[in-house]
Amino acid sequence: MKIHYVLISILIFILVSTFIPNFVSFAHLSHTPHYNGGSNRDGIGKYYPYMALDPEYAAPDEPTQITFSVQDFDGNDVYDIETMVEIYQESTGERVKGFPWTVRDIGDFNLYYVFPYSGSYEIVLSVANDDKMVNHNQLDAPRSILSSIADCNCQRVIFNVSISDSWGLVRNSLLVISILTPIIVLGLVLGRTYLKRRRQISVTGAVPEKETLKYIIMLLAIAGGLVHLAIFPEHGSLQIYYSVFLMAAAGAQVAYGILYILMNFTTEPYSGNNRNFILSQYKKRVALNLFGFIGTSVLIGLYAYSVVVAPPLSPDNKAESIDIAGIMAKSLEILLVIGIIYLLIWEKRRINKILVSPK
């Protein structure tokens, strides 16, 4: 197997993924919304608005932050705009909350509201074309057609949100299942393969050395990748570098685990008398293990750095909070590094013994 070519392909993927965001503009939001939030694809007038709820899976009778980010079509900040925000209950058409016309120093601003009931709501953002033509610090009358700009020198956009007591729990449960299911299925398949190989020992007499450890390393790498894949949507921010980095890290970890399957369970590199072949296989294994060791060490170091000081491009210039997903991912990676180090030492001792032994 051309392991060097595979590793180079993974590195190219990471580098390309890292530079993709340079060509795209994103809102100044604390996370990339994929449920309650988003943007209006056509914009409003000369502006492009984004909106997100925090918490994203908002529940009734709980304080909710509504974040707006209004930019121009080139992704630049806009200043001194006048906005009005209204919240309508979709089932009744009633306006349940209004925030009057207010001058915003910058297009990024937060509002706070406690949604009274479960159900669907419509959040209407109005931006004045000319702040001299709106009623400063006052609310316009409610409308039956929410997008109507009759009698208002303004542009309007509507964001639909859903408030639920249980959807956040459902989403988190599905997320856990999506992470655990592939690991369990892969573990069962590899477990059967492991037992089958063990049963063949009595026939062939060849005992696969450190095979259990190799299985553990492979599963730890894939598990770490799945955790990163699960949490990446929550880490989009001012730039989307964090999300892209997590996606690249997840892809590299899963690829590393798959390469481990192909490398370690297709051939036994230290059998036979061809020393050149044995040395070639050893070098490939070392390259694969070093790739996993260096990459995983970098991920651990970056995480430690980000929870101590504000990481580069942080939208709020604050250190990242420590959460369960982060602890899970780093615990897997620390165990992975320990296993790789042990295996590298064992591989070195093993190859030295083979090379110095008589032919």
Concise summary:
By secondary structure, this protein is α+β, with helices and mostly antiparallel strands.
What does the model show?
The strands form 2 sheets. Strands 1-2-3-6 form a 4-stranded antiparallel beta sheet, with no helix packed on it. 47% of the residues lie in helices and 19% in strands. The protein contains 6 helices and 8 strands. The protein is an alpha+beta fold and 359 residues long. Mean pLDDT is 78; it is low at 1-26. The longest helix is centred in the middle third of the chain and has 38 residues, at 167-204.
Report the structural category.
alpha+beta
Total beta-strand segments: 8
Q: Give the topology string: H per helix, E per strand.
A: HEEEEEEEEHHHHH
Biggest sheet strand order reads 1-2-3-6
> How much beta, percentage-wise?
15-25%
Mass-distribution shape: elongated
The radius of gyration over CA amounts to: 27 Å
Q: Describe the largest sheet.
A: 4 strands, antiparallel
Specify the helix fraction band: 40-55%
Taken together, the total number of domains comes to 2
Are there runs of 5+ residues with pLDDT below 50, and where?
1-26
- Mean pLDDT across the residues is 78
Distance between the termini: 26 Å
